[in-house]
Structures are given as structure tokens and as C-alpha cells.
Amino acid sequence: MDGALERMRLAAALWSVDGAQNGPEIIDAACELLASGYDGVNLAVLAGVMRQHAADEVPEFLEAALHDVGLDLYPPDAHEAQAIAVGHLAARTVAGEMSPEEFVEWALTGAEDFAEPLLALGSDYVNSARPRREIDAEVLVEARRLAFDFEQYARRVADGPCFVCATVAGHPDYRHHVVFEDDETIAFLNREPTLLGYTLVGPKRHLESWVDDLDQAAFERFQGTVHRVARAIAGTLPTERMYSMSFGSRLGNSHLHWHLAPLPPGVPYERQQFHAVMAENGVLDVSDESQAELAREIRSRM
Ligand SMILES: [Zn+2]
């Protein structure tokens, strides 16, 4: 499922669980679908609804517009809609975009099917003398679990999670050896390295194009991090040349990520450059423990 369709599915899920309050988001998602090449008379009508009329007009056109793009309208508080919405907000909480307390407040009303483990924590915020940090930490554990559940669910109902978003959310099938992380960016060792120290650096937000989705300032910040990570790798491993690339495809691995591939000295010329970064030419047989150790060393130089 591509980004625009995924956003509409999420907006429709929130529409179901939040009591039809996010009309403007639905309109935005419809516009994005049109801009991404989706078509449909009803979709076009929905995209044309004026924001100030959203409350009246979105309900009129939403179901038919969703059908135009192969999605269904979830009934109010549908279990599936709750699963999608809670998974998304849990991932946002893990990423630090929503506070644990806000997440609990939302989940207790918006995702009742999933909120049971959060009930006690919700009342702790109000009633207990426990330190807030402690409650936050327990909420984050639950948020990680709910984000995992969502990703597993998403793989069943769609065509697999985004590997960077899943890594950020802490999905157990997407464990990577992280070498750097801040609010915006994550860097981790490639799980299928053609070169020792091969590292991927990506924005935590699901962005796809470094040309269109990052403005100059954001790109320079991102590249500043890429440079720091590259220096840390080169400080850890003998590096004759640091390869630096952005690949990815709409058909898979669409989340923007930068490749840093350190070429060691002594590689024959014909095995350098593209040859050295193509998994088709063979990946290194490295143990999880040695990768963990390598990640620790790189991290210590950041
Ligand atoms: Zn992503």
C-alpha cells in the first residue's frame, strides 16, 4: 500500500474511532490521493469539499470516495479501525511525537478494545504519587507492544511494514543495531551488509524523497548527521573510501534512507564501487554479536 493510500486508510480509521471529527484530514488525504494519480468521481468531489463545510459534507461523500480507491468505510468504533489508529498513535508516542499521557488519554476513549493494559496507568497519572517519569516509562512499554501488534497486523492486511518506520517503532522483526539516534534521525547497521560497517541513515518520519520532502535546511541537517555517522564509521574501521548513496523504490523500501558503505583498503578495482554495494554479489556472513559490538564501537565515536 503506498503512502497516500495508507494515509487515507489511517484518516478513515480515525474518523471511525474519533467520532467523525477529522474532516479536514480526510479532505487532505483525498487531495493527496488525486495528486498521487488516483482517480474517481467521488474522490474528486470529496477533495473539493471546503474545509469549513467538512462536518456536513464529508459524511455525504466519504464512503463512495473510499470505494473509488478500494477502501471500506469503517463503522463507528470498528475493531479494525481501532487497531490501525492505536498502532499509529503508539508508534508516534514511541517516536516522541505524542506524550505518553496524551496517548493514554486518547487510547482510553479512542481504542477501548486495546486500552485495558492502560487503564491503571491512566488513573496513575491522575491519582498516584508515583513519579511521572516512571508512569511514562511503563506507558512506553505498552506503546511499543501496541506498535508491534499494529505492524504485524499491517503485514497481514497490507503488503508489509516500512522497514525504517518498523525499526523506529521497535518492531521485534525489525531489530537493527542502532549506531545513532536523535529526535529526527536514526542510523543502524545494514542487516545484509556487503561491506563491514555498512550503515543506513534515515529520517524517523516516513519521508520518501530527499528532493521533494526535505527543504534545504532539513536536508543540510540530515546530511550533517550522515557526515557524523560516516566519520564515526571511518574512525572504527579502516576505510579507503566512504560510499554514500540514496536508493529505495516505490515498490519497496520507499522510506528515505542513506547508504554509507565503507570500502576497506585492498579491494581489487573490479570489486569496488557498484560491485561492492550489490547484495547480488554476496553479503558478509557476520554474527549478530559481532555486529552488536561493531555498533557499540561506532556509537561510542558519535
Ligand atoms: Zn517509513
From TrEMBL:
Coiled coil: none annotated. Residues 163-270 form the HIT domain. Pfam families: HIT. A motif (Histidine triad motif) lies at residues 255-259. This is HIT family protein. It comes from Paractinoplanes bogorensis.
